[in-house]
Design a protein that fits this description.
- There is one protein chain.
- This protein is mostly helical.
- Helix content is 68%, strand content 0%.
- It has nine helices and no strands.
- Helix 1 packs parallel to helix 3 and helix 2 packs antiparallel against helix 3.
Amino acid sequence: MSIDQSGFAKIARAKRLAESTHLGQKRFDGSPYITHVKGVATQVSLIPDVTWEMICAAWLHDVVEDHNVSVDKIEQYFGLRVRELVVALTRDEGETYEAFIDRIVDDEQAAQIKICDITNNLSTLPLPSSENYKRNLSSRYIKALARLYAV
């Protein structure tokens, strides 16, 4: 990983924005939501040839969809490439999950980030009251991973 001081500063800023944006948000198990975002960013940072833009996008991958942070603000603070990645990782209103994954496949870096997002979600699946729920969610994630790994 070859990231300069400017890149590290932007990663730190993305982390702070994610922490403040997700403050108080909880996961299904009651844990702070930011633990998921941190897990995704950590996995992304281990990708060979990772860029600072990818790590920033990992920190910010849920801020638009979950909290209506504007993509213009993301571009202003982090540049066009981070905006493009976050937009790719944000599911559009009314978009099916399959169409969303198909759209991500068009951007190799976004696909790598989404793989980290899904694997983090799979590793922390809840113990739902319905075994059928868990099976359906796992199936959806596994199909998405197969599509993303095909890139």
